[in-house]
Amino acid sequence: MRLFTAVLPPEPVADELAVVVDSLRSRGGAAGEGLRWTQRPGWHFTLAFYGEVPEETLPELSARLERAAARTAPFRLAVRGGGQFGQGRRLWAGAEGELAVLRRLAERAEAAARRAGLPMDGHRRYRPHLTLASSSGPRRLEPYLTELAAFTGRGWTVDELALVHSDLPRSGVPGEQPRYTKVGGWPLRGSG
Predict the structure, then answer these.
(1) How many other β-carbons are positioned within 10 Å of the β-carbon of residue 33?
(2) How many CB atoms sit inside 10 A of residue 58's CB?
(3) 158: which residues sit within 8 A by CB, 6+ positions away?
């Protein structure tokens, strides 16, 4: 199973973000050509990406993720602003709130995988982002970034660490999106 851990925004937050994304998409024009917009079920803040996880490793990984969640206190988060990666190849929304706790949860999710025996590529500083659109080539995204810079969504209390299965498109149909299924979730209960 192709798995990752994530923070999933609640419906009211996704509703707000959908209004902004609809506005961005309506801009169209040259900047929007070739952008593949992430559908609402794909909106998440990835904490740690595990890749293909053998089924026999899942119980150990789940137990370690449960411990990571139990050590982390619930925290406040909001979708705010945005940015780009790779010369306009990826447009994303950012986050504000208790980002130090979010980063600590990401580190714990990565450590849980290593302790469960999963090979984790080199550690990189965690940068919270929620992917909105991607492109196979460079794009000029400044108009989108300007609109995103003005956006701050409602805050919410993150109270769960989610394990998500990513099923990549196989049909070859242009624009087909990956399918995401939550396969596990653990409440945040710690004090820090």
Answers:
(1) 9
(2) 16
(3) 7, 74, 75, 76, 77, 102, 188
Number of Cβ atoms within 10 Å of the Cβ of 180? 19
Q: Which amino acid is at 59?
A: P
What is residue 21's predicted lDDT score, i.e. its pLDDT? 93
**Dihedral of alpha carbons 122, 45, 117, 1, sign:** negative
Distance CA 122, CA 82 (A): 25
> ∠ CA(78), CA(81), CA(82), 5° rounding?
115
Which of 92, 113, 77 minimizes the C-alpha distance to 188? 77
pTM (2 decimals)? 0.89
List phi, psi (to 5°) of 16: -60, -45
CA dist., res. 92 & res. 15, Å (int): 16
Residue 119 to residues 1, 58, 115: CA-CA distances in angstroms?
Answer: 15, 14, 9
pLDDT along the chain (192 residues), means of 10: 95 95 78 77 94 94 97 97 88 96 96 93 82 87 90 96 86 66 94 62
Helices 58-70 & 99-115, crossing angle to 10 degrees? 150
Report the amino acid identity of residue 12.
P
| Token pair 């659109």 in the structure block, residue | 133
CB-side neighbour CA atoms (13 Å) of 151: 25
Rounded distance between C-alpha atoms, residue 129 and residue 44, angstroms: 8
